[in-house]
Amino acid sequence: SCPNLSPVALKSISVTLSIHEFVACVSATLNYENEEKVPLEASFVFPMDEDSAVYSFEALVDGKKIVAELQDKMEAQHKYEDAISQGQEAYLLEEDSDSRDVFCCNVGNLQPGSKVELTLRYVQELPLDADGALRYVLPAILNPRYHLSGQLEDSCLDIKTPLVPLDELPYTLSMVATISSQHGIQRVHSNCPLNEASVTCGEFVFLMDCSGSMQCPMNNQDGSQSRIEAAQETLILLLKSLPIGCYFNIYQFGSSYEEFFPESVKYTQQTMEEAVNRVKLMRADLGGTEILAPLQNIYRKPSIPHHPLQLFVFTDGEVSDTFSVIKEVQSNSNKHRCFSFGIGEGASTSLIKSIARVSGGTSEFITGKDRMQSKVLRSLKHSLQPAVEDISLRWNLPPGVSANLLSPEPTVIFRGQRLILYARLTGKMPAAEATGEVGLKYTLQGKRFEDKLTFSLKPKPDADLTIHRLAAKSFIQTKDLGLTQTSAMDKKDVLKISIESGVISSFTAFIAINKELKKPVQGPRAYRQIPRPVLYKAFRSPRILCGEFYSMHKLYIILACCRQQGQLIVYIGAQWFPLVPFFYFSLKVIGGTKLMQLIDLQKANGSWDLNEDLTKILGVSLEDLLAAHPHVDLSGWATALAVVWLHTHGKDQKMEWELLERKAVAWIHTQIHSLNLHWFYYPYFLCQIC
């Protein structure tokens, strides 16, 4: 059991996963038991991927199944409160009003000694990885979401649940998965134990989260990089990989924000060096996570002609005003694309996926042992390559039949991506053998194309209504922007589709009441909150050197500096958590590996200078290189050797330096009149640097 916690009613979570092609069907059962002598009300806040279409919620009490009905959220909440006040057992499942990827499950009037199983079911599309593999992630971490005073009055996130390290959770999690595909399965991989781009121009703006939570580690492995360290290394890679002729800027944000340049600047050696030096000084010291203000500042800037804006957002997603941010990005989607990156366990899938989707960009999540660098560079390649644009659909259907698109209108498709659209056919369906046709028109590199798909109008049997629920979820995602950001008309549509389809939204909730209870539950009711996991471990009795009281949004906390990894520690209640150090004593150097040292030396035009810093990485003395070089331009000689080193020593991280190498080779081609290319393969130096 957890120290300093009351007994926990949630004992275990069991998940049954079925994956067929690119769709996951999930059943999650939460097992509760009241070991106390008084009736309990238990509240459990947990994460859910924002693409999940939750369509069923039921309770099994003493062998009797109670199926919840999907109703208007306010009505469901009132019924729940009325039921438990009258001594009835009641169960409520609701999606958070301010974020689509947070859910709250309430168990009301759990009698002493009684057990109950609550089961929720959902379906979800699976994202496609770069190598063509499908990925399913079971969300387990829900980080504290930063919010301003006065926000979240009707939010699951406002519940002050206790936080404990992963390995100290008082309940267990188990999962059984079955996977099938008519195309065959090449391999199955788990991250936990089982027990061609053109060098186009553009404006690249990087929005980097420097809030306190970015000091947390990328994972719970010993020696893991902090999120901010991984982000710094990634930003340097991005800056080195940008194409000549583009414009760029960098914002760092927390409770406030700072921009590197008043306006986006042209990419030159001078501006690149200035930006790299400032990136190396970045710290996770800007307090909370307020992303809306810097976004608005970026969108207010005038557009640069012939340089489309590409926005890269890096955050651990711990914000509360999710729908306000999504709406801001959506309202500016006609002038930019957003590529978003969720850093670390618990990043908001609702925020990360939605801002990419509404702007025609892509989203990535960096968790566990994933390398941020490779995933971000993949997105940079997407932003540089020609994309499918000007997408439209043309339907060819029998008379009397029409199609209404439920998914958002597609705007762009990148190479390697897939397009999934949901539409509802209405009207009188003709004979069983009738077919329909849909044509996808699009523009690629100035040329117009059309692909056609013929389909049967006879629906296939589907007792689980999987496609219907995914279609409903797609429609809800388009319209549902939470309690305060959704228009009255859209709320009406969302409420209607949600209740008709049985798929939960921010305006509906599942409510179940045990009306067959023979007599009301007796005795005073105690309220219990289920703890949720955090990635970092609590510090045990740190040695305090100094301490002072601070007030942050009406929460009084004690800041204390301790001799534990030079970090500042926050004391809250009976637990210690690492926060942002005001004085950062870490001696870890960004770019400590030889690969990062080599990348750090590359110039904006893609070349390297021949100097002692480079020769230390190559493992050859400067004197030997100068004595043996082929009497051509020294920078050309140095660049050729650096490219060879990348291919021999950095081949396992090729995804991260491909764009750097492309710049280097392009620069060499411009120097070809003075570079004798056969020296690329000079055997002595290949031997030395390999």
TrEMBL record:
Top-rank taxon, per record: Eukaryota
Gene3D superfamilies: von Willebrand factor, type A domain
SUPFAM superfamilies: vWA-like
Domain (VIT): residue spans on this chain: 1-124
Ranges where the VWFA domain occurs: 203-384
UniProt function note: May play a role in tumorigenesis as a tumor suppressor. Altered expression of this protein and disruption of the molecular pathway it is involved in may contribute directly to or modify tumorigenesis.
Name under which the protein is recorded: von Willebrand factor A domain-containing protein 5A
